[in-house]
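Final report, closing paragraph on structural work. Over the funding period we assembled a curated collection of sequence-structure pairs, and we close with a single example.
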Amino acid sequence: MKFGIYSNSSRDIGFEVALKTAHIVSSKGAIPVFDTDNIKPSDIGEKDNIKDIIFGDFKDCDLIISIGGDGTFLSVIAKYRELDIPFIGINKGSIGFLTEIEENNIADCIDRIVNKNYKIIERIQLLAKLYDKDNNLKAEEICLNDVSVLRGAKPHITKLELSIDGEKVEKFYGDGIVVATPTGSTAYTLAAGGPLLMPGMNTMLITPLCSHTLQNTSYVIGPESYIEIDLGEFESTPIICPDGRDFPEVEVNDKLIIKKYDSTIKTINLGITGFFHNVRRKIVARGSFYENSQE
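Its predicted structure, as stored:
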């Protein structure tokens, strides 16, 4: 069994956790693999004497371990999603909604994986396509979490028209709209007052941001539906943000089409805690983290 190990060097200083994980993987009779796009032999030097590490790529790995926060986890998925193998994360971020493993229980978690004591969660993804006023494709992106359409640098109201399956639904005047997967329901959507969806659900979620209206409702739609957001005319250029990544600058009368992507992302669930218990625990921990970090 081969474990791909990817580490965010700004979180995992000196690749300390990556090397610790590689030691544990090797001790369980499996093979740790470092992608040389991420960790090179020269990055380790004399720090370690693991003989079983393979330096290469992840194409023959059975799973990939991401070391960092949720941003790292999303970027690792974006980089390796086409390999169609399961992902799991070790939390080295602030809280880590998407990371299953804490630094103090790596050995136990690796043991569970080696002994196949886990289940796979199939998480849907979004495909976002941006078109100009003449219906020419400008850009597209695949997302695991969400696609946000946000007001620009100036605090002007953004006017967006939402359609679902070709039917006009509503005009939103406010800070924007977030379209999320169930995975993304614990991210920006949660902060905007949207509902929590269990990660294996096959639905999409639309939540307005600071909508200037007497009604501020989220929409939950099925997997076969598609979403159209017409940007119309604007004073300040809105921003489209897919999973926190950059997207081309929008122009007047551009439109964004979002639908479920054809394939899912597999993540490993070790069953240590339930979904709702985990969300509650991490929301509480987020407050403690920021309070403690300011002391």
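The longest strand covers residues 167-174. The two ends are 44 Å apart (CA to CA). We thank the funder for supporting this effort.
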